[in-house]
Design a protein that fits this description.
The chain has 168 residues and is mainly beta. It is built from two helices and eight strands; from the N terminus they run H-E-E-E-E-E-H-E-E-E.
Length: 168
């Protein structure tokens, strides 16, 4: 019984320490949490957008979700993916989303048709966390594929800066 109590205490100390490390630079889960950032593509279909923002959620275990302020124009769902730590303050993420094609005419919408699947996008992001753990800078590479899996245009590259979302 005494050994079990020691094991239980050791497990609780380990879990508490891991939870306290989240958000701390150098901790394996330092990226866990919600983030909001500005993104600027230098080339490709998204380069003309000057006010593009991404919201990210990095989960414990290495999954993530991303959504932008342009997800409604044209309508697209959020992106889903994975992330991992490379070095104490460096991370990488890969996430995918579906893109849509506009209807041929407005009449298509009244017939029950609308924005149809066009293909998918793959975003690869290299992230460097700030020393205080409350912001990051990154490079994003985007590849767009049609429904058959063929590359639609050359890879686009963007820079991004994000800040941790906190309770104010």
């Amino acid at each position: 019984m005494h050994v079990r109590i020691r094991l239980l205490i050791a497990a609780l100390v380990t879990l508490t320490a891991a939870a306290c490390d989240r958000g701390q630079p150098g901790a394996p889960d330092a990226l866990v949490g919600a983030w909001r950032g500005d993104v600027q593509f230098a080339s490709g279909a998204l380069a003309a957008i000057g006010d593009l923002e991404f919201m990210y959620v990095f989960n414990v275990g290495g999954t993530m979700t991303e959504s932008s302020n342009y997800d409604g124009a044209p309508p697209v769902p959020p992106a889903y993916g994975v992330w991992r730590r490379l070095e104490p303050s460096r991370f990488e993420a890969t996430y995918l989303y579906y893109w849509t094609v506009p209807p041929a005419s407005v009449d298509e919408i009244t017939k029950g048709n609308g924005w149809t699947p066009g293909g998918h996008g793959v975003l690869s992001q290299e992230i460097t966390l700030s020393p205080d753990g409350d912001s990051f800078e990154s490079t994003i590479r985007l590849q767009l594929f049609d429904k058959s899996g063929s590359l639609v245009e050359p890879e686009s590259v963007a820079t991004a800066r994000a800040s941790r979302i906190g309770i104010r």
